[in-house]
């Protein structure tokens, strides 16, 4: 049994954060463990409050897992503060576990999930340890301090992130809504790159898409897939989760974490080597 860990915030609404991660882990047949960084009072209409967990207790959770389990991949989601980032980076620097960093900053409803001053800590302490980082376009803009409008901007941003020490950068195109496709761009430290294209689904039920994608990626890496295979299979997982949405709640509903097991043979993702 492969054991994986998510270090993230709790979403009481169950569509994003720790809850989305554990559901995805379960569906992808890995044993999920968790370190909770913050509680959010949240539903599909938005986040009404955030309660960060004390840094020392975040540390205790992570140390408890590392002491006892042989963890095959770790992901991070909502980390909230620079103090939490520094403390988990200190612990992760001493273990050799593939690390997937989803640089969660702002919820769909616009509420902040990462303090502004924590961005420097994310770039200085966590990204140098990351195997893969998965920013959406606004997150890539914030991490690199540059606007992204063209493919050349995407390439520049990816190279800046690779220079920070990340081994593989996935810039997700979910926010590029002027296109019939949802295209994600992948760049490796050795200069290789490719894009993944799937059809864009017209739905407002996209709460937790980023969390779910990075959790699927973590599960496949934890199971021993190569980085490229894990990325393509995670894209299929999120594509099906968005396609077969559940229409839960009155706002941006969650994705369907069950869909992949039922429909995985039917999902088409087009790869372009670049
Ligand atoms: N409408 C859509 N149809 C198909 N795929 C989509 C759609 N929206 C997002 N995706 C895909 O979902 C994955 C997550 O991308 P997205 O850009 O939504 O992440 P995110 O903004 O970090 O998510 P979150 O809102 O959870 O923070 C990517 O693979 C992206 O291409
Ligand atoms: C605890 C937590 N983590 C991550 C997200 C991002 O998801 P989204 O951008 O879809 O709101 C969230 N809303 N809550």
UniProtKB/TrEMBL annotation:
UniProt key word Transferase: yes
UniProt keyword terms in alphabetical order: Kinase, Thiamine biosynthesis, Transferase
Pathway info: Cofactor biosynthesis; thiamine diphosphate biosynthesis; 4-amino-2-methyl-5-diphosphomethylpyrimidine from 5-amino-1-(5-phospho-D-ribosyl)imidazole: step 2/3; Cofactor biosynthesis; thiamine diphosphate biosynthesis; 4-amino-2-methyl-5-diphosphomethylpyrimidine from 5-amino-1-(5-phospho-D-ribosyl)imidazole: step 3/3
GO molecular function, one term: hydroxymethylpyrimidine kinase activity
Pfam families given in the database record: Phos_pyr_kin (PF08543)
Catalyzed chemical reaction(s): 4-amino-2-methyl-5-(phosphooxymethyl)pyrimidine + ATP = 4-amino-2-methyl-5-(diphosphooxymethyl)pyrimidine + ADP; 4-amino-5-hydroxymethyl-2-methylpyrimidine + ATP = 4-amino-2-methyl-5-(phosphooxymethyl)pyrimidine + ADP + H(+)
Keyword Iron: no
Ranges for domain Pyridoxamine kinase/Phosphomethylpyrimidine kinase: 11-256
InterPro entries xref list: HMP/HMP-P_kinase_dom, PM/HMP-P_kinase-1, Ribokinase-like
The EC number(s) this enzyme carries: 2.7.1.49, 2.7.4.7
CDD domains (alphabetical): HMPP_kinase
Recorded family membership: Belongs to the ThiD family.
Protein name: Hydroxymethylpyrimidine/phosphomethylpyrimidine kinase
């Amino acid at each position: 049994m492969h054991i994986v860990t998510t270090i993230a915030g709790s979403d009481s609404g169950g569509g994003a954060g720790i809850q989305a991660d554990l559901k995805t882990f379960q569906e992808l047949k890995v044993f999920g463990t968790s370190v909770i960084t913050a509680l959010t009072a949240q539903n599909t209409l938005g986040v009404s409050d955030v309660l960060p967990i004390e840094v020392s207790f975040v540390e205790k959770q992570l140390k408890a897992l590392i002491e006892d389990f042989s963890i095959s991949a770790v992901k991070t989601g909502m980390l909230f503060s620079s103090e939490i980032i520094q403390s988990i980076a200190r612990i992760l620097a001493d273990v050799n576990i593939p690390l997937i960093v989803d640089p969660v900053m702002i919820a769909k409803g616009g509420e902040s999930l990462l303090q502004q001053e924590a961005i420097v800590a994310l770039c200085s302490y966590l990204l140098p340890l990351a195997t893969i980082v998965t920013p959406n376009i606004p997150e890539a803009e914030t991490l690199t301090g540059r606007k992204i409008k063209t493919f050349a901007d995407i390439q520049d941003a990816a190279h800046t992130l690779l220079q920070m020490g990340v081994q593989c950068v996935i810039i997700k195109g979910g926010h590029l809504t002027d296109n019939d496709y949802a295209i994600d761009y992948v760049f490796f430290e050795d200069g290789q790159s490719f894009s993944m294209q799937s059809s864009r689904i017209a739905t407002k039920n996209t709460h937790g898409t980023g969390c779910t994608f990075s959790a699927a990626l973590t599960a496949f890496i934890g199971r021993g897939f190569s980085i490229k295979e894990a990325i393509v299979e995670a894209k299929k997982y999120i594509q099906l989760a968005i396609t077969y949405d559940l229409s839960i709640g009155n706002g941006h509903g969650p994705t369907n974490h069950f869909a992949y097991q039922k429909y995985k043979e039917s999902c088409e993702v087009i790869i372009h080597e670049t």
